[in-house]
Amino acid sequence: MPEALATALATPGLPWLMLAIGLAGIVRGFTGFGTALIFVPVAGIFLAPQVVVGVITLTGIASTSALLPRAWGQADRREVAVLALAALITVPFGLWLMGMLAPVTIRWIVATVAAVTLGALVAGWRFSGIVSRPMLIAIGAVAGVIGGLTGLTGPVVILFYLAGQLVAQTVRANTILFLAALDTVIVANLLLQGRVEWHILLLALVLAVPYFITSLIGQALFDPRHERLYRWVAYAVIGLAVLSGLPLWT
To answer: H helices then E strands: how many in the chain?
Structure first.
């Protein structure tokens, strides 16, 4: 354990990782999204893909656990179950791809997914059609592949399902439940494959401290009167993270 902790604390770029997760916490606190979109592109500069996925999903489990009781009562659990079951099947394929592709290729995929998501958010794109059962299955399946491959668990669901015509409370609850389920499935698969070493777990715990603190700060800073301003600040931070994480610079 002491050796694993020493390894975690000696992680290359740890100050930058703590800065990225800290900014992600502030953005998550006053917008409700953006953690992986900010952290994963930056983390890819310093960490191997499996470490990035392990750290962001472990941090995600820790950060959403307190939100689950309320979300459980407010969510459409039947729809979340369809999404989660589809993702359960495809996460192993995403993890397999992670082992097959070169790290630089994965970084380009991360940059592309994050940039497309950011572009859609900035443009105000919303899905306005009816979400059918086959569409839910497809959304969950794609989210599972991308989540397992990159650690970006949220963009697919946020853009193609949760940005529809549902009540905001249900949207938030569904998002929390699904992402918690997807994070758990990814971590379980990593554990079964022996990819979660002690130093990864400890690194996640080290990063969870600034993330938790800055999430509270972001939540305290939130003022509904300035929601539009907060969102544009979030978009700017996400854009900076995507640009800094481009493989062009390293």
So the answer is: 12, 0
Distance CA 32, CA 240 (A): 18
Degrees to nearest 5, angle at CA 48 with 47 and 54: 90
Break the chain into its structural domains and give their ranges: 2-249
Do the beta carbons of residue 19 and residue 208 sit within 8 Å?
Answer: no
Q: How far apart are CA 171 and CA 41, in angstroms?
A: 26
**Alpha carbon distance 235, 241 (integer Å):** 10
Q: Rounded to an integer, what distance in angstroms lies between the CA atom of residue 46 and that of residue 30?
A: 27
- Tell me the C-alpha distance between 111 and 115, whole Å: 6
Rg of the chain over all Cα atoms, to the nearest angstrom? 17
- 248 vs 134: CA distance, rounded Å: 38
DSSP secondary structure letters along 195-212: ---HHHHHHHHHHHHHHH
Closest CA to 80 of 26, 131, 23: 131
pLDDT mean values, one per 10 residues, the chain (250 residues) = 79 95 86 85 94 93 78 89 96 96 95 91 75 88 96 84 62 84 94 90 92 85 77 88 85
